[in-house]
Amino acid sequence: MVEIIKDLDISSLVHGGRGLGRHDGKAVFVPMTMPGDRVSCRVIKSKRRYVEAELHEVLVPSPLRREPPCPFFGSCGGYQWQHIPYAEQTRWKEKTFSDLMTRNQVVANDRIKPIIPAPDEWNYRNRVQLKCHFTAGELVVGFYQHGSHCVVDVDKCLLVAPPIQKALDLLRNELPEMPCQDCLSQVDLACGDDDKVRIILHTRPKGRRQLRTWLQEFSGRHQINACIQSGGKGSLEVVNGESDLTIKVDQPEIALRYGPGGFVQVNSAQNRNMISAMLELLALDGTENVLDLFCGMGNFSLPVARRAGRVVGVEDHAPSIASARINAAANKINNVEFYAADAATIMARYQSATDLDLVILDPPRSGNYQTSNELLKVLPERILYVSCDPATLARDLTPLVNDGYEVLSSQPFDFFPQTWHIESMTLLGRA
């Protein structure tokens, strides 16, 4: 029998985006709620100290609760906080970040800076992955439902950049004419800062030939860069235009090209804000020897190289390193070298170095605890850690602050409005 908690007051938000209430001495976590709500909820999982539940009904809404503007809110699993006004979203992200850092005793409260809100809470995503499912003779294109692999049919997304929405409209209008619809598994859409769009169709091998012909005609008619992929990254083929897109950073502008599979921040405007804040924080004097780990196509390496003595960029995705080298040459930045290797391998080369002034890390969401321990063998003067997960950031900072470093500054950035995700930038110096 399903247990219903009939009357629960939500008092706060926690990392992961869920509202927190208390019932019978246990913490109760409920998605799609906010502080000030009184709700009823269904128990999904009950443990000794906490309960996980799903929202059944908002009995009394918080005075601050807003009507989610997206009609797919609650069914689409992508964006959990549309019911929370944006100023409240950033306030809770700032509090969550501060709580995580101070609770783990890695950052003193007076070293945490206020959050930098996104320039726009809507239309900010420069890339998106749409899932496809063929059922009852019809192709459903959209996003996974929360906690499942059921695809919610989505015709509009309020978070994607206008060029992506326009391309999605064109695609959906012509879906009935698409051959081999049951072979399509995913559609990737992305746009550059010049509004050029790239579409990648992911298909099963048996549908590749027919879908390639259709995609070539469709993309040519609408002037969209297009690729098709029927397996690993090695199976990707350009069928119209170019595979690369371009973003712009720094002043004067640096144009950065990146290809399919290469990492780029989804919020271009906030990426520029972070780079500007980074350069101001580092206050480089033109003599520094810098190592940029997880450098991608040069997003941080090239702006830093303009102001440092020498920069080495490292990334294990070889196509991104090829893009980084092209970007350095195209922007006439000559004091930078790029290598395709994993972070630990490169760090081993610096075991005996004494002149490494700055290491920049921008690892994936899983963080990189191993690199933190390797850094303690090298002891660079400063470490700048860019993170997209405060939990793994706290874990990775712990060995550093316990053995020779102190946090000089830590600042959250909101790259992902309408979600609970938090980006941040933390500077450490040798104690």
Structural account:
The strands form 4 sheets. The protein has a 7-stranded mixed sheet. Strands 17-16-15-18-19-21-20 form a 7-stranded mixed sheet, with helices on both faces. The chain has a 5-stranded mixed β-barrel with strand order 1-2-3-5-4. It has helices spanning 86-103, 162-174, 208-222, 268-282, 301-305, 318-330, 343-349, 369-378, 390-401, and strands spanning 4-13, 19-23, 26-30, 38-46, 50-60, 127-135, 138-144, 151-153, 184-191, 197-203, 225-229, 237-240, 245-249, 254-258, 289-293, 310-315, 336-340, 358-361, 382-387, 405-413, 423-430. α7 (343-349) packs parallel to α8 and α8 packs parallel to α9 (390-401). The chain is α/β, with parallel strands linked by helices and 431 residues long. It folds into 3 domains: 4-65, Beta Barrel (OB fold (Dihydrolipoamide Acetyltransferase, E2P)), CATH 2.40.50; 90-120 and 267-430, Rossmann fold, CATH 3.40.50; 127-243, OB fold (Dihydrolipoamide Acetyltransferase, E2P), CATH 2.40.50.1070. A hairpin with a 2-residue loop joins β6 and β7 (138-144). 25% of the residues lie in helices and 32% in strands. It has 9 helices and 21 strands.
Helix content: 25-40%
Q: H/E series, N to C?
A: EEEEEHEEEHEEHEEEEHEHEHEHEHEHEE
* CATH topology label of the largest domain: Rossmann fold
Rg, Å, rounded: 23 Å
Which assembly state applies to the chains in this document? single chain
Report the sheet-strand fraction.
Answer: 25-35%
Globally, the shape reads globular
The tally of structural domains comes to 3
**How far apart are the termini?**
57 Å
CATH class annotation of the largest domain: Alpha Beta
Write down how many β-strands occur, each being a DSSP E stretch of 2 or more residues: 21
CATH H-level superfamily title of the largest domain: Vaccinia Virus protein VP39
What CATH architecture of the largest domain would you give?
Answer: 3-Layer(aba) Sandwich
Mean pLDDT: 95
pLDDT < 50 runs, ≥5 residues: none
Strand-pairing-aware structural class = alpha/beta
SS field, number of helical segments = 9
Q: Can you summarize the main beta sheet?
A: 7 strands, mixed
Strand order of the largest sheet: 8-7-6-9-10-11-12
